[in-house]
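Q: Convert this sequence to structure tokens.
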Amino acid sequence: MAVEFLFEQLNPELAGFCPKRLQRITPWLRQYVDEGKLPFANVVLLRRGGVAYSNFYGFRDIEERTPVIEDGIYRIYSMSKLITTVAALSLYECGAFQLDDPIHHFLPEFKDIEVLVSGKEDPIASVKPETPITVRQLMNHTSGFTYGAFDPSPVGKIMRSKKIDFGNTQENLGETVRRLASVPLCFQPGSQWRYGVSTDVLGHLIEVLTGKPLYQVFDELIFQPLNMNDTFFEVPVDKVSKFCSLYTRTSAESLKRLENAKDSRFCENVKMYSGGGGLISSMQDYLVFLEMIRCGGQYNNARVLGRKTVELMLRNHLPGDMASMGQPTFSEMPMAGIGFGLGGAILLDPAKAQILGSEGEFTWGGMASTAFWIDPMEEITVVFMTQLIPSSSYPIRRELRVLVYQALID
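A:
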């Protein structure tokens, strides 16, 4: 069954795809669900702003046998990071900061932060940073921050002991960031790439610069202009019926429900506005948001960013690829030939990355196996939605890329 969107439905052949080859996506999608690997799958492929392929299949709640719906609402987790980055860049365009500004100019609690030297001593040895953390380093994950929940290092241990958890919806963003400032960095700012809470710090920076809570800034700068009516930090009561349950893979390769939709923490009174992973959204909302980026900062008559700002976003902001910056793999993806822009990864060399695609492709995903990419060269936007933790369970993102590009014929 095809999804009905605001976007025009295109004849695949007129959109530059072989219809027969494009239909290879359908059995692939269904097999993942029928084999019990995913609760459901939802894929939409846009070319030049029109729908060349869309399909969804499975159950938004397996136990209750409620089928996936075209306007379902999903936990997008780290796909929130791009929205936070766009909001920050909108403020950058207004002169609120420069990308190379030290963050302690706005968040003074980070003025005296230190860098881990050794974790073998107690207390651990640390030194002053050689250079301060900059706003750009928050956007490209070279700040030295990490994720405490997943990091076995001494820094991760300290974060856990101080309960620095931006996923706790009942905590306060500013208070959590201030506790973070007492934890040493994993490395000298700018010297490595490390996935972590940088975007949560960026979200608090936005709050400080505007004097407004992050949800209000998002609403004013992005959601209202783009008519993104299903994107929130907290599921509204009248939309709970569209929210999907969350699953994980067990050792027996079967699915276990982690969170019933109606009992989710996202349906409570959310106090933590996590710019790094706190948003929920719909397929249509996120497609509109990505199309705004692909079209140079404007969708329909709503301009969110300037064209040159988007061009800067989509450039590699690392000295090399992510593998050369200490990240040889991430989730299920090797990172050779892949750089990082502002808010997302950049495909630098398809041959080195060993994947079909185009130089300059902009991509990222979320912890529940959601994913997106924008290919400016081919004028392609793709979003994949499901709700399975962890995102490294299966090579879904790489497989979907092959299925999309093998069907391209113009």
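The two ends are 26 Å apart (CA to CA).
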